[in-house]
Amino acid sequence: MMHFYSSPGSCGIGMRILLEETGAPFEATLFNLAAKEHLNDAYRAVNPKTKVPALVREDGSVLTEFQAIAFWLADTHPEARLLPTDAEARLRVMEVLDYMVGSVHMRGFTFVIVPGKFTQNPDFQAELVAHGTAQIATGFGNLSEMLGDKAYLMGDFSIADAAMFYMTRWALLKGIDMPANIAAHHNRMLERPAVQRAIAGEGIEVGRAA
Ligand SMILES: N[C@@H](CCC(=O)N[C@@H](CS)C(=O)NCC(=O)O)C(=O)O
To answer: Which H/E stretch holds residue 19?
Structure first.
């Protein structure tokens, strides 16, 4: 059986949603990142990058990085319809996923949520939070344009929506404003049974957007 490594409250919720969407059986190990539970030798042997999410597949091989795991899950579970089949549309999914993970998450939310990873100086931390907050505003602005009046980023649900959900959850927790269509996307995601199972599995609270 596959083994999923995550942490409640992390970006791992996005991947767990996709696992639940496939219906594939998996076991999970959940780390408390703040307590540095993921920085142990056993997990270093699984994922030397010591990040979550990571997925150990049935054959024992390990996949890391959100985009890679998501594309693999989608391609190996075509019946779950997590990715368009058209080459151009798949490329657009890759494009928006990379933007969300590489820019909005890494250059935005990371600075807002864990500025203490970068500096112990409270003034510098405040600058990082301000910088991250501005990056998130730009990011949500661009994502709002991409979403438009569609139900999901690509029209139909895809792996990209799971990534946006982990960030809309963080935005709610941090009191960060979201454009109305992004807030509606968050609430729409909450209606999906796979999202509800993933939230229960990670044991987290997820609010509705106003
Ligand atoms: N590029 C990685 C990023 C994953 C990542 O940054 N995960 C965070 C949680 S949201 C993490 O593992 N943090 C623990 C740490 O940095 O020690 C991906 O796309 O999966």
So the answer is: helix 12-22
Interval 199-208: pLDDT, tens? 999 999 999 9
Q: Is residue 202 part of a domain?
A: no
Do 162 and 92 belong together in one domain? yes
Q: Of the residues 5, 6, 7, 11, which should be mutated to test ligand 1's pocket, given the most ligand atoms within 8 Å of the CB?
A: 11
In a domain, 203, yes or no: no
> Residues with Cβ within 6 A of ligand 1?
10-11, 33, 50-53, 65-66, 101
Q: Give me the count of residues in the chain.
A: 210
Atom from ligand 1 closest to the CA of residue 52? 12
| Structural domain harbouring 66 | 2-80
**Regions of the chain where pLDDT drops below 50:** none
The CATH number that applies at residue 98 is 1.20.1050.10
Report the Cα 79 to chain-centroid distance in Å. Answer: 22
- Each residue's pLDDT tens digit, 153-197: 999 999 999 999 999 999 999 999 999 999 999 999 999 999 999
Tell me the pLDDT of the chain averaged across its residues: 98
Rounded-to-integer distance, Cα 181 and Cα 151, Å: 9
97 belongs to a structural domain: yes
